[in-house]
Design goal:
Elements lengths: L2 H9 L73 E3 L26 E3 L114
Parallel strand pairs: 1-2
């Protein structure tokens, strides 16, 4: 599959029949600014693909492989990324996240997805991370510990129920109204996080840092395992 062929398939799609690229190998292709709106990319291989400025609004990316994909300025609003692999996403051209280059994930579905990425300060409000796997693989850390970074991100109203957030960086993250029911927060850094009206029922916070976190109106605090700061 070439980039030109991908563009041709998308161009021939109709509003009532979105483009079908399911299971296709788009590995390392330059698909910058391509319009994938509502396209079926389920199970597609997008390893290392350049999706800078691409429109993936409402696209079906369930089970897709996006490891090392370049997603600066890409729009994933309401996209289905359930059970997708999102390891080592390239979200900025520099060492620090640049909000001018930030991808958009508002309302996206990450249920069951495997994610290791720098998502600090991004808008993930209302996103569904049910059962998502965001903990580092401690058996494969030859270049140092690589953790999912959600520091300062907007996760208000997000569903993180049963998500594996072990060792995640969540400093000053907006988790107002979010569901963390049954989430594994072991060793996570939630210092300064806003957990106003969040649901923490049956979460595991063993070794987690809740220093200066705001827990006003939070539910289920008495059921949280290992929580020492409230």
């Amino acid at each position: 599959m070439t980039a030109e062929r991908v563009r041709g398939i998308l161009a021939s799609a109709a509003p009532d029949m979105p483009a079908d690229l399911s299971g296709k190998s788009l590995e390392n292709l330059d698909l910058s600014k391509v319009d994938f709106k509502r396209a079926n990319l389920s199970g597609a291989n997008l390893f290392g693909a350049k999706l800078d400025g691409a429109n993936l609004t409402g696209a079906n990316l369930s089970g897709a492989k996006l490891d090392l994909a370049w997603i600066m300025r890409a729009n994933f609003t309401n996209a289905d990324l359930s059970n997708a692999s999102l390891l080592g996403l390239v979200v900025s051209s520099g060492l620090e996240n640049n909000l001018a280059e930030a991808p958009t994930f508002k309302g996206a579905k990450f249920a069951g997805a495997h994610i290791i990425a720098r998502l600090s300060r991004f808008d993930l409000s209302g996103a569904d991370f049910t059962g998502a796997k965001m903990a580092p693989d401690l058996r494969n850390q030859s270049m140092g510990l690589t953790r999912t970074d959600l520091s300062g991100a907007n996760l208000s109203g997000a569903n993180l129920s049963k998500a594996d957030l072990r060792l995640a960086l969540m400093r000053f993250t907006n988790l107002a109204g979010a569901s963390l029911r049954g989430a594994n927060l072991s060793g996570a850094d939630l210092s300064g996080a806003d957990l106003t009206d969040a649901d923490l029922t049956a979460a595991d916070a063993t070794g987690a840092d809740f220093g200066h976190a705001v827990t006003r109106g939070a539910r289920g605090l008495e059921t949280v395992k290992g929580l020492t700061q409230r």
